[in-house]
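Q: Hi! First time doing this. I have a protein sequence and I read that you can turn it into a structure. Is that right? Here it is:
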Amino acid sequence: MGLGAEGRRQLWAVLAAVLLLGEVRFGGGDSPSADPREGGQAFPEDPARLAEVASLLGTSAEELEGALCRRRLVAPCSGSRRRRSSGGLVEIFRPLSASEAAAKRDALATVLYAGVFKWLVAVCNEALSGGGGGGGGGGGGGGGGDEEGGARRGIGILDIYGFESFAVSGFEQLLINLANETLQQHFNEHIIGREVRLYGEEGIATPHVEWLDSAPAVQLIGRILSATDDTWRLAQDSAADQHLLQSLHATHGPRAASPHPRYRVPRIGGGRSNFAVQHYAEEVPYQVAGFCKKNKGSLSHDLRRLLSSAASPWLRDNQSHLLGEAHARQPPGREAAAGRVLAPLGDGTAAARRGDGGAPDERSPKMRARSVSEQFRASLADLMARLDSGSRRDVRCVKSN
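A: Yes, that's right. Below is the predicted 3D structure, encoded as structure tokens:
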């Protein structure tokens, strides 16, 4: 793939940091206090291990500890332990508990590993394309590299999601089943709908064919995820999931003004902790506990600032894979185009082109983090656009379970 010795060293450093992050433990209890002397604030039990992670990422141990063990807030107010910030605002540093610091540690490790994976997919696509154009990031297919009339030719292989229904289904299963419903609808339309229309155009008599339309289920799940986004942004407390559930029952349930035909209130439990969706395969109840927390899924401003300002050449040149195009620092006058530009690995030119040397301002409207559901739906929409734009061949495998 054309990755030199220095590029491999940088890549191993990031992966080593991910592994070592799993060894970082925090003390301090789970009752954060405004006064660190009261013992509530989290602290690394092994500072040397944290310093090793910081060195691999190209930042200082103090900065990494601050990003993990404290939460930085920006507000137009004054008070103790606050430092004047630019633009007339003040910075407020709130100590976190050990469990909160551990959650931030896990989020950092997840983003680093996912960024490496996205970068690797982009590099593979770039190599398969023969070096022409940028390396697009998407999952599941390599390009052929032959271009004609400005359009790239390629072959993609899609392994369709499996429908999931567990004893306890949650947020992850709802996303997976959304993809499954969407792909099922696409499959039915192409295999059944178009064939029936083609037979009619040819004057061939065909029996009436009926199939379950997935469009209502796709619409309902989209509304549920939109409500999850709204609840997450308006009520970020322990009661957020219950607020969401009550809103869903009131909007789509049997007592709503316009009940949705695919929405169900489960008989067991009376819908006090779950809701159900009638999918094409079966009815699936979803436990709402953890919906809002899992939907947040993005790095805190503190960790985004840390990664944006890290000295590691790999982190510096692959911001879009780590933080997404909305958070990546872009050269002046250059539009961010997801999957279009593959930054060279560790040559230092990205920082030189940027010329700012600082982290993006989280007060900017562009810094609003996208929820997990927003990212998933955008990725799914891109996948469907790719399927619609190409010539497709379907292989359906049926195997015994």
